[in-house]
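thread from #wetlab-drylab

HS: before we spend reagent money on co-crystallization trials with iron/sulfur cluster, can we at least see a predicted complex? here's what I'd submit
DV: go for it
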Amino acid sequence: MVLPVMEHFYTLQGEGFHQGKAAYFIRLGGCDVGCTWCDVKESWDAGKHPLLKIEDLILNIEKTPAEIVVITGGEPLMHDLDVLTKQLQSAGLKTHIETSGAYPLSGQWDWICLSPKKFKAPLPEILPHANELKVVIFNKSDFDWAKKYAALVSSCCKLYLQPEWDKASQMTPLIIDYIKAHPKWELSLQIHKYINIP
Ligand code: SF4
């Protein structure tokens, strides 16, 4: 089986609950969610990215000591991820996904990071499965969006607010105030961008 892969690399997870942990990232091509502030627009057209065999991806991962594999995009759930995740787990790897939830959930996951987007709302079916809810704050109305989805995920789901990178200087102070007023939320920063790693 093959999947369109924009890039794959071993780095540190920069965001959310697993921030700071070593992880192998696989960025799949394809996304039609259309976030205006998207920082990986080159991922949107799946046809522009090479089709790689799952076996070859795993051979590359096994050249590293990675224990966690993060499947991201693009919107990775545009693809059926059952075979990929089964093979990753069979190889002893933890499977994590970063998704908007806008497409049906496939795959076997050790960690699901749901990052719902206003541009194409998530399907309800993923909400009880999210281990982590990560809402990107681009403007003030995004706090209401965050509150709406916090009420829909499970009670054990971790809650993160993350400033959109280009608006960070304006939004981070608002996020800090919001978290102080609503302490069930935590701050997620894109630390990989601060330390200049992929
Ligand atoms: S869901 Fe992700 S990849 Fe797709 S447009 Fe939004 S930020 Fe970009």
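DV: Residues 31, 33-35, 38, 40, 43, 73-75, 100, 117 surround iron/sulfur cluster (CB under 6 Å).
HS: ok that's useful, forwarding to the group
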